[in-house]
Write a structure and sequence with these properties.
The chain is α/β, with parallel strands linked by helices. The chain has a single domain (3-229), classed as Tetrapyrrole methylase, N-terminal domain (Cobalt-precorrin-4 Transmethylase, domain 1, 3-Layer(aba) Sandwich), CATH 3.40.1010.10. It is built from seven helices and nine strands, in the order H-E-H-E-H-E-H-E-H-E-H-E-E-E-E-H. It has helices at 3-37, 45-52, 68-73, 87-98, 112-124, 146-154, 202-229; strands at 39-43, 58-62, 80-83, 102-105, 129-132, 157-165, 168-170, 178-180, 185-190. It has a seven-stranded mixed beta sheet with strand order 1-9-6-2-5-3-4, sandwiched between helices. A two-stranded antiparallel ribbon has the order 7-8. Helix 5 (112-124) crosses helix 6 (146-154) and helix 6 crosses helix 7 (202-229). The termini are far apart.
């Protein structure tokens, strides 16, 4: 391999790394600025408090399209979040690192078993973890089995977590990504925890996956309806 070829690859890699640093920096600043403008209400925090009396650390489980406010409300807690290894995932990972999150590289679909073990290890080390349960590509509002598998291994409680906003831009992406507008009201709602026994089999794991999915759907509906009822305010 000629030296010139190595230099070209090095230059390309350096440019890509610089681009990621710039994009992640801009993204983190935008989230902080938006978050400071929102009128935020946290609902259901008593469920998390109760879970922590039995579970040293927790697994936050959220929908992919409702994650943006949570990256602000739960910043600077060293919560470790799974982000995919491709370029977009790496940029997202660097963005959330700037907001005080940990970044675990992997995918819930490709190499999923490794990602489950890596996240379970973070719990063992004393960190909370966060997972977008219908990511990275859907179907929307269908929970994947990763969170309940991690809960079985670790014994940690799963905390369903969602967000809603009075005024927002909703994109036509697979996850119907919701971007709350500046200065709007935002609700971040915690749901009742899901517990997964260490000795449960495949059938019980599926039951627990459906329980998590149902609780996430329910708290999202409740939060959305609260704004719809008061739309004329």
């Amino acid at each position: 391999m000629c030296p010139g070829g190595r230099n070209r690859r090095g230059a390309t890699g350096g440019a890509m790394s610089l681009r990621m640093r710039v994009l992640s920096g801009i993204g983190a600043v935008m989230i902080r600025c938006l978050g400071r403008s929102w009128k935020i209400r946290l609902d259901g925090t008593e469920y998390e408090a109760a879970a922590r009396r039995q579970s040293r650390n927790v697994i936050y489980a959220a929908w992919h399209g409702r994650m943006l406010p949570i990256t602000y409300t739960h910043r600077n807690r060293a919560i470790h979040v799974l982000a995919s290894e491709h370029r977009d995932g790496e940029t997202l990972g660097r963005t959330i690192e700037r907001l005080g999150f940990g970044h675990v590289r992997g995918s819930s679909t490709r190499g999923g078993a490794r990602a489950v073990l890596d996240l379970a290890e973070k719990l063992k080390l004393g960190f909370d973890i966060g997972i977008t349960v219908d990511g990275p590509r859907g179907p929307r509002y269908v929970a994947k089995p990763g969170p309940v598998q991690i809960a079985k291994i670790s014994g940690a409680a799963i905390i369903p977590l969602t967000s809603s906003s009075r005024r927002h831009k909703r994109f036509s992406s697979w996850d119907a990504f919701e971007l709350p507008l500046p200065f709007t009201e935002v609700r971040v709602r915690h749901g009742e925890p899901v517990w997964v026994p260490a000795d449960c089999g495949a059938e019980m794991l599926e039951t627990k996956r459906l329980e998590l999915e149902t609780k996430l759907r329910d708290i999202t509906r409740v939060s959305d309806e609260a704004f719809l009822r008061n739309r004329g305010d």
